[in-house]
Design a protein that fits this description.
eight-stranded mixed sheet, alpha+beta, seven-stranded mixed sheet
């Protein structure tokens, strides 16, 4: 297995372990900051879902500011509360739920009146659970499904005079890190007893169904009520305050209460007095009365429209927390480029859309845990990828710079586009220019090696600049000489003309460079150039270390023309074939002499040769206008 595959496998395993650890840590209550994030994301998802019309099952009779102004005090006197309850009972509701803590004694006649009134109809009274701290804790010391229930120190129950005529339910709600109630516990316990919640008592009485506690859910008759792992009912709000039908208790005192708002309905009596303290922030309101939170839970229970966040959903959360980060890391590893990033981003958008779709259709998948499981490993892996990519870029840039020292820019670009360039030999026409220093071998025996290297470096730099300016390819430096090809990576119509220009520019440039050297060196050096045009065989030679070269008669003739130049007292010898192909018509600043019909070593037949020099150079035998046969 390659090292890259091993690295990817290790990254995927570590990502899976991270996701599992995040989920387990949050499930065990160790990552409380995720609760605040989840509350924020839940508010956002609720707002995206928008206001919904609630099932018309519950009427809230609010003891509001109007009632307090009439009576002059809060809490409402027991006699007035008795009047409210009595009027409601006369309109025959399914059940009357009083979301007020009747735990203190008041005027005897008022308490007696209220107690008698409570006996006239189906009643549920509110109790409160007292916990040892401000936050409800979960003890796991016990065994069985009820071990996960919030354990209270004690229950604050209504006065016996009232409780004897009604059922009692605990009215506490569970607020998240943001202070917004995200769920309502359905069961509470102390060390010796278990109590039902206020909404559950009301729903069971309204439906007239028996309650069964299963290991991971509740049953109201034959209908399952999906709850969270601690038997809490997740709450999603229908809209802002008063979305659930609400009437003021003042309408009872005014005699204007509409019977249709009460008859055969669940009626919840509760306070919405400003400054009363029983208010909570929700996605739609900064302050929603607690009675409306409780009424939302009652509606969920009776209508069966609560959002699902049960054991199956938690299993899905765990799988997503593990698999989604692995998928994202896998995509980034699959394509270490913009394609991988786009694919990972598309998956994240798909997950966000799926999460929102599930929420708006009644399934509450945790978003905060998934983000905590996915973002850090993806960010770390992407960072490592970028770092490694930067290192690879530097490495390949260094290789490219190294290649640039041995290959012409055009060949570099061609090899980048086509790595198989010249993997098979190609026959084509090309122009070949050879240049060589004369007297260099003897000079190298007499001067310092460092000085000799400086001379070679300057000579090679001059050749390279001239060849590049004429778009030629230096196929190789031959110590004190070089071979330049015109026709690679692809043959062009102006190859002969550029080769001719390169040969003339080399003649002038090298002549000036030698003239600039110290006399002791200048007097020992000369140069010779040969140039020819014709068919070559271009190929790549070597196995692990390859180089591009050209072979054939054209290369041999161009090389031998340097000897012909020396034999005829010239420095630049050009074949008649090259001049014709270049369509050379002469130059005002140069003199072309010839032709000379001669033989070259390694070739049968004769070659027509011309010699070129600057106008101010030494005279040569003939000009092109004075051609001899």
């Amino acid at each position: 297995m390659s090292s890259r595959r091993v690295q990817i496998l290790v990254a995927l395993v570590l990502t899976a372990l991270w996701g599992a650890g995040i989920y387990a840590g949050h499930a065990n209550g160790h990552l409380r900051f995720l609760d605040r994030l989840e509350a924020t994301l839940t508010d956002w998802r609720t707002q995206v879902r928008g206001v919904q019309v609630p099932p018309d099952l519950v009427t809230i009779v609010a003891i509001d500011d109007t009632v307090v102004k009439r009576g002059g005090s809060y809490p409402l006197p027991r006699a007035d509360l008795a009047r409210v309850v009595d009027t409601i009972v006369q309109f025959k509701p399914k059940v009357v739920a009083i979301d007020l803590l009747l735990v203190d004694r008041s005027a005897a006649i008022g308490d007696a009146t209220l107690a008698n009134t409570l006996a006239t109809g189906p009643m549920v009274l509110a109790a409160a659970a007292i916990f040892p701290s401000a936050s409800e804790t979960v003890e796991t010391s016990g065994q069985g499904p009820l071990a996960a229930l919030p354990q209270a120190e004690r229950f604050l129950l209504p006065l016996p005079a009232f409780a004897d005529h009604a059922e009692v339910g605990v009215v506490n709600v569970a607020t998240g890190q943001s202070g917004s109630p995200l769920s309502v516990p359905m069961l509470f316990r102390t060390s010796d007893k278990v109590e039902l919640s206020f909404p559950l008592r009301v729903a069971a009485r309204a439906l007239d169904k028996s309650l069964t506690i299963a290991p991971d859910h509740l049953m109201l008759g034959d209908r399952a009520v999906p709850t969270d792992t601690d038997f809490a009912l997740p709450v999603t709000y229908y809209g802002p305050r008063r979305t659930i039908r609400t009437v003021s208790a003042q309408s009872i005192f005014d005699g204007t209460l509409n019977r249709a708002a009460i008859e055969n309905r669940i009626v919840v009596i509760g306070a919405s007095v400003a400054g009363g303290g029983d208010f909570y922030p929700t996605p739609f309101d900064s302050l929603m009365p607690g009675v409306e939170v409780v009424s939302t839970a009652i509606t969920h229970l009776v209508a069966g429209d609560s959002i699902v966040r049960d054991r199956k959903v938690h299993i899905a959360d765990a799988l997503i927390a593990i698999l989604l980060p692995m998928l994202l890391v896998g995509l980034l590893a699959w394509r270490r480029s913009a394609l991988g990033i786009v694919a990972a981003a598309a998956v994240m958008f798909a997950w966000a859309g799926f999460n929102l779709f599930a929420f708006t259709h009644g399934v509450w998948l945790n978003a905060a845990t998934t983000l905590a499981a996915a973002v850090p490993p993806v960010a770390v892996f992407a960072g490592v990828q970028l770092w490694a990519g930067g290192r690879r870029t530097q490495y390949f840039a260094a290789k490219s710079r190294s290649l640039a020292q041995f290959q012409a820019p055009a060949v570099q670009e061609w090899l980048a586009r086509d790595p198989n360039f010249l993997s098979k030999p190609v026959r084509q026409d090309a122009a070949v220019v050879f240049i060589d220093l004369s007297g260099f071998t003897a000079l190298s025996e007499r001067i310092d090696p460092g000085e000799l290297q400086d001379i070679l470096r300057a000579f090679h730099a001059l050749i390279e600049k001239t060849a590049v300016d004429c778009a030629g390819m230096i196929s190789g430096f031959l110590g004190d000489g070089a071979m330049i090809l015109f026709g690679l990576p692809g043959a062009m119509p102006d190859d002969p003309a550029r080769a001719l220009k390169c040969a003339i520019d080399l003649h002038r440039g090298v002549e000036r460079w030698i003239a600039s050297l110290p006399p002791a060196i200048r007097d020992q050096l000369g140069f010779k150039i040969g140039a020819h045009f014709g068919p070559i065989v271009a190929s790549r030679l070597g196995e692990s270390h390859q180089h591009i070269t050209a072979t054939g008669d054209t290369v041999n003739v161009a090389s031998r023309l340097m000897e012909v130049a020396v034999q005829n007292g010239a420095q630049l010898a050009l074949s008649d074939t090259l001049l014709d192909a270049a369509d050379f018509q002469g130059a005002p600043d140069g003199i072309l002499s010839g032709p000379l019909l001669t033989q070259v070593r390694g070739r049968s037949g004769v070659v027509t040769v011309w010699f070129w020099r600057d106008q101010d150079g030494p005279n040569q035998a003939t000009t092109k206008a004075e051609m001899v046969d």
